[in-house]
Amino acid sequence: MESVEVTILGQRYMIRGDATKEHLQKLADFVDSRIREVYRQSPGITPLKASILASLMVSDELYTISRDHESVKKRIRDIENGAESLLKIID
Fold this sequence. Notes:
Layout: E1 2-8, E2 11-17, H1 21-41, H2 47-90
Antiparallel strand pairs: 1-2
Helix pairs in contact: 1-2
């Protein structure tokens, strides 16, 4: 298990995970950038509220990507099924 010290909103955190140190650092940088984005939009917001809003933004993106991924997988299955049907007709 890898561990790395990261900084989010000026606060240091030691995080550990199964990913590489580089990956963990990229995740921390991503989180930091999202929280800072919320701060730019709402300068007077508390760190806790900024973190919650950033989490909601990231969750929305993840949910949308996941839903789109499932839709693409379904279309691929439909195409594969259609191709199999055509192959049966040809054979």
